[in-house]
Amino acid sequence: MSIPRRLLIYIVLFVTLNVYAVGFSSLIGWVLDLIGIIGDAQTQNIAPFLSAIIVCLPIWLFVWRYVNRGLEESSYEESSTIRNLYLNLVLGISTIYLSISIFGFIESIIKLESPLSALPNMIVWAPLFYVHLNYAQKDWFEDRRKRIHEFYLNITFIISLIIIFISLRSLVLDGLDYLLLLVSSNDVLVENSTNLDIEGGQISALITAAGLWFYSWNLRIKKIDLNFRTVDLSVITVSQAFIFLLSIFFILAQGIMLLFDMGSNQPQGLYKTLEFLPQILSFSIVSIIIWIYYSSGFLDTGVRKFYKVDPSLIKWTYRYSVRAISLIFLISSSVSLLVFLIGIPITLSDEILITAEKKWEFDLISASISSFLIGVMTLRYISKKIESDTEVSRKKDIEKSYIYIVAVFFLFFLIGALIAILTIIIRDLIGWSWSLSTIELLRWPFSFALNSIIILWFFRKDIISRFRAGADKKIEKKSVDILSSESLLRHKAELNELFNVKSFQVANKIGKLKFNKEGINKIDSYLKKHEAKKYYIVEDGQDIILYYLKD
After folding, report:
1. What parts of the chain have a pLDDT lower than 70?
2. What is the pLDDT of residue 352?
3. Is the CB of residue 154 less than 8 Å from the CB of residue 233?
4. Could you tell me which of 532, 478, 477, 480 has the C-alpha nearest to residue 508?
5. Around Cβ 520, how many Cβ atoms within 10 Å?
6. DSSP H/E element including 519
7. What is the spatial distance between Cα 174 and Cα 189, in angstroms, rounded to a whole number?
8. How many helices (H) and strands (E) does the chain have?
9. CB under 8 Å to 430, separation ≥6 — which residues?
């Protein structure tokens, strides 16, 4: 079948299916409404609904049967990109409709309302989802060309996880806020109402997203090792670690600011003082839960492994990403401190320029201290993990990428800061408006520029070695055949990096005999004890060692 013909056929299938589905679900809703199941009877024109069903359903069935008959004639048709795109577009639309329906169904039950308004879309789209899923997954796991279904699953998984994070965080926030209200019940600045108010929509969203997550994630993890997995796990674990560290930063910063405000003459009460805590702590709790689950597959977190995955690439990507995050916190600390120090003489010289509210800018001090503490502790922890791990597979490649990213990032940072500095200086010199306000504007880009220079200087040796001509030239690897007695199997990844491994075979030891006439005569009886693909007789000085190779 030609590509234009195939494209036309699947466009017809897609359009007729959607028009039929919308018409059928609208008709069901009208019937339920008419008989008073989901509401009062309403006068509606059902002609468009019936017309959509009468016209589109026969066309879709005819074309669908025609296409499926063609699958028996050509195996290529089943793996065609256009066909897989159609199947997964229908799956995506079905997933959206079913998710909305399930969400509404659960929310109605929570609110003690009739859930039957969600029935029309469920009745129509559930069978369509099931039919197209069977075809989309048919021989998919054996055919590596069918990446469109991977993409559909990946999108479903990412969206479901985002919704889980948002809804779960909202529920945790409600719970923490309720606990704070209970603790602050005697606070005169707090209203008397301390009822736990949880929105039914958040619970519905969490249950619906959890179902989508279970379907997409478990299908991807248990059935096949998808290409998306490495990216997903790296992004998820690194982002959750960053959110957790950022939330701890805000908690520390707010705590330090509270210490600065202790001398204030305006007491706020316990609830008003700590009302920021549930907002921030809810992020850290949810992020650490997600992090624990997904990091268990490739890190020794002390909890059981919820799934199995080849840890090498993901582990080193995660560790060097966290090292980069710790570096960002340390740079933020240095920038904040430098901006504060530059601002001191400005404050002392011109109190009109710097208002009373930001006179000492204690927010910069709190940000600097908090960033420094988090940066130092995180960097020490992750550096110890990197140095203590003897497994070097993929480490060098990730380390190289880490150096490249650091160099490029801070180089562009430096360029941007220098442009900002020159812009401010030239503008004020031309306009003869040089004053303390100029220094006020310069302190931020100057601080960024200085810290960028420090970082680039600190990494100069690594950067130069990476970018030096011939540093990354290809080294010809020796070709080897490896016969291992299981000991080398644990270092297979390292051997593949060092050599061009043509074959890797694991031989099992049968026994050891003395290198004499008696020992030679016993060889046959030893070999007969094992049914093997191949046998090896190795002379080792005074001994004869026997091995066998299984299929």
Report:
1. 1, 36-45, 71-79, 138-146, 185-198, 220-228, 261-268, 346-361, 393, 466-477, 485-491, 493, 550-551
2. 46
3. no
4. 532
5. 13
6. helix 517-527
7. 19
8. 17, 5
9. none
Name the helix (H) or strand (E) containing 540: strand 534-540
Helix 3-34 and helix 119-137, axial crossing angle in degrees, nearest 10: 150
Range of the domain at 160: 3-218
Domains in the chain: how many in total?
2
Q: pTM for this structure?
A: 0.74
Residue 247 lies in a domain: no
Report the relative pairing of strands 508-514 and 479-484 from DSSP bridges: unpaired
Q: Which long-range contacts (CB under 8 A, 24 or more apart) does 394-399 make?
A: 394/312, 394/313, 394/316, 394/493, 395/316, 396/497, 397/316, 398/313, 398/316, 398/317, 398/319, 398/320, 399/316, 399/320
Domain closes at, from 193, 218, 243: 218
Among 400, 392, 398, CA closest to 472: 400
pLDDT score at 290: 94
Q: What is the pLDDT of residue 545?
A: 83
CA neighbours closer than 13 Å in the CB half-sphere of residue 251 = 16
Token duo for residue 23: 């018409």
DSSP per residue over 296-350, as a string?
TTTS--SS--SS---HHHHHHHHHHHHHHHHHHHHHHHHHHHHHHHHHHHHHHH-
Please answer whether residues 334 and 431 qualify as being in contact, where contact means their C-beta atoms are separated by less than 8 angstroms: no
Q: Classify 481 as helix, strand or coil.
A: strand
The amino acid occupying position 214 is F
**Structural tokens at position 350:** 């011109």
548 sits in which H/E element: strand 543-549
Whether the Cβ atoms of residue 315 and residue 205 lie closer than 8 Å to each other: no
Tokens of 114: 């009739």
Query: CA torsion 483→487→493→497, rounded to 10°?
Result: -60
Residue 179 lies in a domain: yes
In this predicted structure, what is the pLDDT of residue 161?
A: 94
Q: What is the distance between the alpha carbons of residues 246 and 374, in angstroms, rounded to a whole number?
A: 9
Placement of tokens 């002379």 in the chain: 539
pLDDT the model gives residue 353: 43
CB 71 within 8 A of CB 134: no
pLDDT at 117: 80
For residue 532, the one-letter residue type is A
Measured CA to CA, the distance from residue 359 to residue 260 in angstroms comes to 13
Q: Does 240 fall in a domain?
A: no
Output DSSP code: residue 263: T
Domain boundary among 151, 185, 218: 218
Distance CA 131, CA 125 (A): 10
Residue 19 lies in a domain: yes
Half-sphere exposure of 17 (CA within 13 A, CB side): 23
**Residues above pLDDT 90, as percent of the chain:** 30
pLDDT of residue 440: 79
